Amino acid sequence: GQNIDQPTEMTATEGAIVQINCTYQTSGFNGLFWYQQHAGEAPTFLSYNVLDGLEEKGRFSSFLSRSKGYSYLLLKELQMKDSASYLCAVTSGGFKTIFGAGTRLFVKA
Amino acid sequence: DTGVSQNPRHKITKRGQNVTFRCDPISEHNRLYWYRQTLGQGPEFLTYFQNEAQLEKSRLLSDRFSAERPKGSFSTLEIQRTEQGDSAMYLCASSLGQGAQPSSYNEQFFGPGTRLTVL
Predict the structure, then answer these.
(1) Phi, psi (rounded to 5 degrees) for B84
(2) CA-CA distance, A91 to B104, in Å (whole number)?
(3) Chain B hits for A24, Cβ within 8 Å
(4) A102/B contact by beta carbon, under 8 A
(5) In A, which residues are within 8 Å of B1 by CB distance?
(6) Which chain A residue is nearest to residue B33, measuring alpha carbons?
(7) How close is the nearest chain A Cα to the Cα of B29, in Å?
(8) Contacts of B45 in chain A (CB under 8 A)
């Protein structure tokens, strides 16, 4: 079976750092994506990992461990506009992409 | 605007009716995806095209759903004999898709979606 697990909700304070975890079990693995989705809007791309290690992109970083089936998204210097859902997605068996249910992040002042 | 566009943005229909949605991808993108998303869930994969070829279709998709991409550009998703359980946001995405293996070029750009309500 194919399964992607993420926490349902997280709350963090403006200016802080938050880590959103994702574990996956898929029949194949060709890469892991993180997307951001604000309420009522379409998902937008944040990061991509295919090899183990950390990918950094401004305030956002994403880590992958293929042997553990684990990834995390790290958001630094949180801003109120970062309040959104964060979707972990795995591309397996070609280009079929499986999304997790998403983690709703609430940033408070 | 050169992003992914979808029409209509909203559709209300009665149970049993057929509906068709259209997606226009970013012009140079050869890969096109359809997803369905319900409240509190991530996008659920429905089907995927590379150019005009439909390469994969979710086993969760019943025979009431069909998708086409006749000229490798725009795509349509048709739902026949709609049911109340079909009510959802239908998202289309496209990607550039260079090379045989996924890469960051497979970043998917999503359209605004079509919200379907079946009464």
Answers:
(1) -60, -30
(2) 11
(3) none
(4) yes
(5) none
(6) A96
(7) 14
(8) 96-99
Average pLDDT estimate for A17-21: 98
Q: Which residue in the set A44, A48, A87 is minimally distant from B42, CB to CB?
A: A87
Indicate the SS3 state at residue A6.
coil
Label residue B87 exposed, middle or buried (CB < 10 Å: 0-12, 13-18, 19+). middle
Q: Which pLDDT value is given to residue B105?
A: 58
- Would you state the structure tokens that stand for residue A102, as one six-digit string? 């998403």
Q: Are the beta carbons of B108 and A45 separated by less than 8 Å?
A: yes
DSSP reduced 3-state for A75: strand
Whether B82 contacts B92, CB under 8 Å: no
pLDDT of residue B107: 85
Confidence tier at A4 by pLDDT (50, 70, 90): very high
pLDDT, residue B109, reads 93
Mean pLDDT score across all residues of chain A: 94
Per the structure block, which two tokens stand in for B107? 């970043």
DSSP string, B64-81: TEEEE-TTSS-EEEEE-S
Distance CA A27, CA A50 (A): 15
pLDDT by residue for chain B (119 residues), tens only, comes to 579 999 999 999 999 999 999 999 999 898 999 999 999 999 999 999 999 999 888 887 778 999 999 988 999 999 999 999 999 999 999 998 765 555 555 789 999 999 999 99
At A87, list the tokens.
């979707």
Reported as type and span, the H/E element at residue B86 is: none
Q: Please, are residues B113 and B62 in contact by the beta-carbon 8 Å criterion? A: no
